[in-house]
Design goal:
heterodimer; A: about 350 residues; mainly alpha; MetI-like fold; 2 domains; 2 strands; B: about 300 residues; alpha/beta; Rossmann fold; 4-stranded antiparallel β-sheet
Chain lengths: ~350, ~300
């Protein structure tokens, strides 16, 4: 093909069509696996579409505008059991606390693991700890958390006396949600930094810049999409989690502030989130109002899908404009085919 | 390689006495690391007044782990001259170059013995970032930062009083423009200073990297095969630039392009397998190489 393009003749000869490879010429085992791949792929699409369509149909049917503005109320009559204003606020607050704690810590840890990692043994231990943390089921994390935050000296996070705290509040839940989200943020930051070629760091060092300056002005700006992607993934994890809410948020229908200080009172108080509201209203819970569960589940799904779309947007958004700058080098050098953050076709 | 060298594109105007004093033990291999070769100190002082020694290497040995990649090299880097390090791949040129601003240290297990001085001070006694600001480096691959052209150069400016560089003061602007002009890039990018540096061509990117390295107001500029990834026209531009710059800063260039060394260098050091085989003026090394290995390399017998 290259010789065709380079020929200086008056008009290039027509390109020869590339013969299509026939699957039927493959060995049997390859053909079986090939079709299995097709079936799995299509199956996954069907399931994903089914969930969205089902929730859409059910959710739209039961969704009423007033659900968004009314607080839930304990009532056997569904017309009086209110909406899910408080759970929406609860989800928002927990996510905000969790992200506010996890994002700076996670990014800092990712940077340290990639750029400093000294002493070596500590970095290894930290790396393994992050992996363990990523694998801990959230209910285990929640139980462990309850053990800690019910200590009296942490009663300022919820309510209680120096002898013992309730251990259930937005602050408590938010803090342990941060632990849930942190591994994702650390991994995203770390992996993005590992993909930055060393010659970029050296270029900055060779100008007499310190490591810290290099990180702040060169490395972090260039991995911003990956970091944002990690943070949004962590937010998704927090929004979708039920176990920590169940154990550490008190599961009161309404958000119950402690004391009279407006914001701090709410943060120290108990409440619920969309996930726990869905559980409460599902046939398994006490509210037993599947209509509201469907409506809330629809809202939750939409939020999560929107976040997913945001991740895709952020992590891919840079490529067309200022095209992923080092993936350009790497793909040209045939070193990688495009990593997680810099995938996609060359523009 | 063609044994017949092309005629020099430009030669230095200064007619200096040929340097015939070889470093004492450089040709017989690095058998005795303790013998410091001070030969370059004994030779007659260079005639042009503008030539001034900035960096000196005294029997430098460099290792990665237990693997010695530079053996007993003694050299002198002078302002007003271009020093070219030539030699085949794996001869330790780049490592030697990187040791000048202590970039070797970022590689794990790198070790050095011998002395590298900048204006008489051991580089190990200088604060490392201070050293690297005075001795900046341009790499083989153009590596602009993913910022605008302006920010790429402004980044290299020395920060004063911890003020943020983001703010464009007239002085910063003037310094950036000056660096771009010295690198011969300004006329091409004057209207695009706010565009991404990654949109430039390879040759422009490399000149931007040179501008960046110059913006730090270095005293020594290290160039690690700066043209190996570039087309002939960009190469010619950069070579012209190097020749112009040597008046104001000391320049060391690593190249395995012999013709390039011939075109730009005043002094040439030929390295082979970590040893300094031959070191002298460009004229002498290319016209009357003393060591057989130099002769073979220049005539294309290996490399």
């Amino acid at each position: 093909m290259a010789s065709v393009a380079a020929s200086p003749g008056p008009s290039p000869p027509p390109a020869v069509p590339v013969p299509r490879e026939r699957v039927s010429s493959w060995p049997l085992i390859d053909r079986v696996c090939y079709w299995l791949c097709w079936i799995t792929g299509i199956g996954l699409c069907v399931i994903a579409v089914a969930i969205v369509v089902f929730m859409f149909v059910k959710g739209i049917a039961y969704l009423r505008p007033e659900l968004f503005v009314k607080s839930p109320a304990a009532s056997l009559r569904q017309t009086q059991s209110g909406g899910f204003l408080d759970p929406i606020i609860g989800t928002f607050v927990v996510t905000a606390i969790g992200t506010a704690v996890a994002a700076p810590l996670g990014i800092a840890l990712g940077v340290w693991l990639s750029e400093y990692r000294s002493p070596r043994w500590l970095a290894r231990i930290v790396g393994s700890s992050i992996e363990i943390l990523a694998g801990v089921p959230s209910i285990v994390l929640a139980l462990f958390g309850l053990l800690i935050v019910s200590k009296g000296f942490l009663s300022f996070l919820s309510q209680g006396s120096p002898q013992g705290a309730l251990g259930e509040s937005f602050l408590d839940a938010g803090l342990f949600m941060a632990l849930l989200a942190m591994p994702l943020i650390v991994a995203a930051t770390y992996e993005a930094l590992e993909q930055v070629p060393d010659r970029v760091r050296e270029a900055s060092w060779a100008l007499g810049k310190t490591r810290a300056t290099t990180i702040r002005h060169v490395l972090l700006p260039s991995i911003r999409p990956s970091m944002a992607g990690g943070v949004v993934l962590g937010m998704g994890r927090i929004i979708g989690d039920t176990a920590i809410v169940t154990v550490l948020l008190g599961l009161t229908l309404k958000n119950e502030p402690v004391g009279s200080t407006p914001i701090i009172g709410t943060l120290r108080g108990t409440g619920s989130t969309l996930t726990s509201y869905i559980f409460y209203n599902s046939p398994a819970g006490e509210g037993n109002s599947h209509e509201k569960a469907y409506a809330a589940a629809f809202v939750l799904l939409m939020v999560v899908l929107a976040l997913n779309a945001l991740v895709t947007r952020i992590t891919r958004g840079r490529e067309p404009g200022s095209r992923s700058w080092w993936s350009g080098f790497l793909t040209r050098a045939r070193l990688v085919g495009g990593g997680s953050t810099s995938g996609g076709p060359e523009p | 390689m063609d044994p017949l060298m092309p005629p020099p594109v430009r030669r230095i105007a200064v007619d200096r006495q040929p340097n015939i004093a070889p470093p004492g033990d450089a040709t017989n291999g690095g058998g005795a690391p303790t013998t410091v070769a001070h030969a370059h100190l004994r030779r007659p002082a260079a005639t042009p007044t503008s030539v001034k020694e900035r960096m000196r290497l005294e029997s430098v040995w460099l290792a990665y782990g237990s693997n010695w990649v530079v053996r007993d090299v003694s050299l002198s880097v002078r302002q007003g001259e271009v020093l070219a390090l030539i030699g085949a791949s794996g001869s330790g040129k780049t490592t030697l170059l990187r040791s000048l601003n202590r970039l070797t240290e970022v590689t794990e297990g790198a070790a050095r013995s011998g002395l590298v001085t900048l204006d008489g001070t051991d580089v190990h006694e200088l604060e490392v970032n201070e050293l690297r600001r005075r001795v900046t480096m341009v790499f083989q691959q153009p590596n602009p930062f993913p910022m605008t052209i302006f920010d790429n150069v402004a980044y290299a400016l020395v920060e004063r009083n911890g003020r943020r560089r983001r703010r464009r003061t007239p002085e910063i602007e003037a310094a950036v423009v000056d660096a771009l002009q010295r690198a011969g890039l300004y006329s091409e990018v004057a209207d695009d200073l706010d565009h991404s540096a990654l949109a430039l061509s390879g040759g422009q990117q490399q000149r931007l990297c040179i501008a960046r390295a110059l913006a730090a107001r270095p005293e020594v500029l290290l160039l690690d095969e700066p043209c190996s990834a570039l087309d002939p026209i960009s190469t010619a531009t950069i070579e012209e630039l190097i020749v112009q710059l040597r008046e104001s800063i000391a320049i060391v260039i690593v190249t395995h392009n012999l013709q390039q060394a011939f075109r730009v260098a005043d002094e040439v050091a030929f390295m082979h397998l970590g040893e300094l085989v031959e070191y002298g003026s460009s004229k002498q090394v290319f016209d009357r190489p003393r060591a057989q290995r130099t002769r073979d390399y220049i005539n294309g017998a290996f490399g």
